[in-house]
Structure prediction request, 683 residues.
Amino acid sequence: MSINVIIQSRMGSKRLPGKNLLKVTKNNLSLIEIVIKRVKKSRLIDNIILATSKKKENDILIKIAKKNKILTFRGKENDTLNRFYNAAKKYKTKTIIRITSDCALVDANLIDDFIKIYKRKKSSYLSNTYHLVDNKFVKNKKSYYPDGFDIEIFSFDLLEKIEKQTPSNSRVEGGVITPFLKKKNKDFLKKLKLCIPESPYPNTKNLKLSVDTSQDMKKIRDIFETFHPNIYFSFKEIIYFLRKKRDLNKSQNLVYINKAKENIMGENMLLSKNHKMILPNLWPTYFSKTKGINVWDLNKSKFSDMSTMGVGTNLLGYSIKQIDNAVIETIKKGNLSTLNCPEEVNLSEKLLELHPWFGKVKFARTGGEANSIAIRVARSNTKKQNVAICGYHGWHDWYLAANLKSKKNLDKHLLKGLTPLGVSKKLKDTSFPFNYGDIKSLKKLIYKKNIGIIKMEVCRSSKPNIAFLKKVKNLCIKNKIILIFDECTTGFRECLGGMHKKIKVYPDILILGKTLGNGYAITAVLGKKELMNNSSKSFISSTFWTERIGPSAGMKTIELMEKIKPWKKVNSIGKAMMNIWKTTAKKNKINIKISGIPTLAKFTFLERNDEFKTFLTQEFLKHNILATTSFYPSYAHDTKSLIKYRKILDKVFREIRYFQKNKIKSTEFLKSEVSRVPFGRLN
Prediction:
């Protein structure tokens, strides 16, 4: 005896002829195929049986069923009850789950959940669509499960009883259990041990998501297109978007997410911009335009960016007119040609003026490129090739090689348990991480691993440790080690040029990026003249390093920064935000840890961090604010934006405190999955 799903299906639909064969998805799966495939995902059922009539037009349904390797049964054309009874009897079914073929969105997770409830309560009949009202068995108005998610579970004993007690003249096509139950009295119904699971989503009772008309089919196709190529999305995922009153056909953000899943390796170009890292499936993800601190998504919704402002790139704000105009004028003249652009010479001259302790510059367009250039330059100037690293330095082999020995090596610097797939095993024992502030461990590393290069961020999750950095510098001088400061993130946030200028600890090689072009792609590697001259014998070259947009943007950005000195305001805004976090957390008795510097600040929940971080982002999004637990202030932020942020944060922290006190599970307050563990770095 087994638990079997019986799918009720015929080709005789009058309102939408042949609906079972109508194509639902982009890859041409029909309605009946979709239902079968989604039901197959259930882990607790034994078999799936397609029950149809003996009418010849239904031969195609039998063919599809066999193709999908499920059981079949054929019975009377106008007696669904009898078809179910004989199908169940033939395949020795103890428990029947009734599904209709017009429910394309049937969720296997719901099926499994209901089976568990059915067993636990020792019920003989479960329905998420019908219940008792005034001693009558009627359509459930309190369960709120939308039409299209109908699931009935009942025992063979009950089915057999109803089959024997239902006269032939009172049988109706389509009905199995409910036509009989509607006529019975309260006492009879109580003996059945009825079970009516209620949906956690109370505002969906009027939704119709079954397929009876062409309009219904269009709606279902739009949903599948939205989630394409995934056909196994859950009830929870569907309801979230419907509750948000989004037209799924017009929800361009999600459409693009799913297109990216299909077409782009890793879904997108930057891991930290992946929606799974922030708010899975619900984060707007794609933008149409920007201005100041505002971002518009593909649905033309406007959001205030109170998070990382382009992952730390837009220090001055989004779409700064003077910079954009400089770029536009450059484009008008031509961006790239057989000859070199003079702008790169102008920018090199300006950067060396700001950093007179360096002798030459090499430009690239990304931080990863710049980091690799710096390593190449350093290794070409020393016989000791091994690198000691602290912080995040991009995706290239030389860096990820640190995880070849152990997946945990970069846990505090990048992502936990990151697999260095594709990195040559020959690079094992060439890169070695060390902890910021731990001079003893660094000394051991230098002497044990023959370190020739130290590469590090000037500061990570706290203020720069000047005493430590000076000791590092002295170690480098003593042991003839080349010191590289990666200031892709910190550069220009504290002063004109980089944090090292402010703390007066000077490396041999410096990397600048992110803020240098205020959103336009330009990075720079500055080094001592003798190091850079020696490295010119190596091959470090790229076609698109010769375009002129990046250097043009860099020149104009520096020009503006010299005038307005943005770090003063940015520091002030950052300090104000850190104070908001501190006071609001104290008020609501939330334990958090605030870290970083005011211009690159973050906080961590000391309890259930990933859950509450996801919830915070979710709740701010309701107010059209992009927010995480990191905040990179820009020159465009102001007091008004902070006041609004504080009010919402107070409410969010109050709710989080309630969740903590009452030990409420994340599934009860999150409308998405918990976001993945973020980078183990400043952001």
